[in-house]
Design goal:
heterodimer; A: alpha/beta; three-stranded antiparallel β-sheet; 9 strands; 27% strand; B: mainly alpha
């Protein structure tokens, strides 16, 4: 079953076409690495897939439904450029809040479990504004995984992460993929992403230049896709 | 039930965050008190003049002070891109709007309830003679102010000059609600009961609240996502 599908998606910023007839599919259980230079349209595409903005033309489906449907949103996890947790709340309050918003049966218990899984249990009552960058990032990861989403949309998830946060995220992504969940991530960190990816899509100025299986050549040489399908 | 639970989760989150920082409420309260005190020194009205201007003075202060709270409503979601997390969460735009509007209502009402005794003391006005009716008018007027302020806070959240733009958009929209609230407040402070001559203003205020609450509940999703 197709978990994420974009069909003929166009997006304009003024007259500039940020996305041009993008067609993209990710099967259930796949890990799709969305790569491309700065300004290629990766974030724009992920935001449309996530339902944060609308395509000018074309359509996006997640698990066969519109991304803005409430039930679809319940099954999607998102990590964007920001950590998306509140500085004025404690780590525990943040995770409990999102547990309640996602209507989890035991939000407080689940929040505690995820604080333990991300190594934040000792600072659970500390305000996020007092956290180090690495701790904030791990909390962001916990927030995205908290509700056990079937589809994870990650925009540059490894950027600016410290070593511990990268290890936590990679472990959780491997577990998610082993459980048959789908991951779509945009990234510049080719090595980390290609280790996990089962599919690769290259965006060039808003157009899909390559979309296919990840091959051993790509893992051996992360620049391989750019060398063969990029603009040089 | 899910809707009400989500509304309360958002309200509690906003109130908790605001009470931790006290950024908006402190600014709003300080502004309201300073304006009331300054006006009392600048003018020396007679008792009759005070009763006539009481509604106008109070609601101008409440509207300006309230904007300081309302401007922050969606702007507080910008640090760390928290707005993305709310938009991604499986809650309706209506629940998000109502949750934020309720939190704003509590904060603006708190500022008003602290300002009223100060107004009474500095202007030597006995404002408690129709206390419950006055409380009703305050609640209705504040809800109108809150609804318009909250939806325009969402509308201007990604605009660079939102602190300027939001009030420019909010005040013209508020004219019917402010006119009603001013008239009713003036009558109540003068000792007139609700009903009779001023019933039309009460009806206008209630209609304003109902219409704009319904519109905002429907429109928030479109305002945030397009």
């Amino acid at each position: 079953m197709t978990a994420v599908a974009a069909e003929g998606v166009w997006k304009f910023y003024g007259d500039y076409p940020a996305l041009r007839d993008v067609i993209l599919h990710a099967e259930q259980g796949a890990c799709l690495a969305l790569i491309g230079r700065n300004g290629a349209g990766k974030t724009t595409l992920l935001r449309i897939i996530g339902g944060f903005s609308k395509a000018a033309r074309g359509q996006v489906r997640i698990l066969g439904s519109d991304p803005r449907e409430t039930e679809t949103r319940r099954r999607v996890g998102w990590i964007g450029h920001g950590i998306s947790v509140y500085d004025e709340l404690s780590a525990f309050e943040n995770l409990s809040l999102f547990g309640r918003l996602y209507n989890l049966p035991h939000p407080r218990k689940t929040a505690m479990e995820w604080l333990e899984r991300t190594g934040l249990e000792r600072v659970k009552d500390g305000l996020v504004r007092e956290f180090s960058r690495g701790m904030r990032q791990r909390l962001a990861v916990a927030r995205a995984f908290l509700h056990q989403p079937s589809v994870l949309l990650l925009d540059e998830p490894f950027t600016a992460l410290d070593d511990r946060a990268i290890a936590v995220l990679q472990r959780l992504l491997r577990e998610a993929l082993a459980e048959g969940r789908t991951v779509v991530m945009s990234t510049h960190q080719l090595r980390e992403a290609l280790e996990l990816a089962t599919q690769v899509a290259l965006l060039n100025r808003g157009k899909i230049a390559f979309h296919g299986e990840r091959t051993p050549e790509m893992v051996a040489d992360p620049g391989w896709v750019y060398a063969h399908y990029g603009e040089g | 039930m899910d809707f009400i639970r989500q509304v309360l989760v958002i309200t509690r989150k906003d109130l908790r965050a605001e009470l931790r920082t006290k950024e908006a409420i402190n600014a709003s309260l300080a502004f309201a008190l300073v304006i009331l005190v300054l006006f009392s020194f600048a003018f020396d009205p007679t008792a009759d003049q005070t009763r006539e201007m009481s509604g106008g003075l109070l609601w101008i202060v409440f509207a300006f002070a309230g904007t300081l709270v309302l401007n922050r409503s969606f702007a507080r979601e910008l640090p760390n891109d928290c707005l993305d997390a709310l938009v991604a969460a499986p809650i309706s735009g209506g629940a998000l709007f109502l949750g934020k509007a309720l939190a704003n209502f509590v904060l603006v009402m708190a500022v008003e309830l602290v300002s009223l005794p100060v107004f009474g003391i500095f202007y030597n006005v006995h404002w408690t003679s129709r206390f419950w009716s006055l409380l009703l008018v305050l609640a209705l007027g504040t809800w109108g102010l809150t609804v318009i302020g909250t939806i325009f806070s969402a509308l201007t959240v990604n605009i660079r000059l939102r602190e300027l733009m939001a009030p420019l958009l909010v005040y013209p929209m508020l004219i019917p609600a402010l006119m009603s609230a001013m008239q009713l407040t003036m009558d109540l402070i003068a000792g007139k009961p609700l009903g009779g001559d001023n019933e039309i203003w009460l009806r206008l205020l209630v209609a304003f609240d109902v219409i704009f609450t319904a519109l905002s509940l429907l429109l928030l999703e479109t305002v945030l996502v397009g």
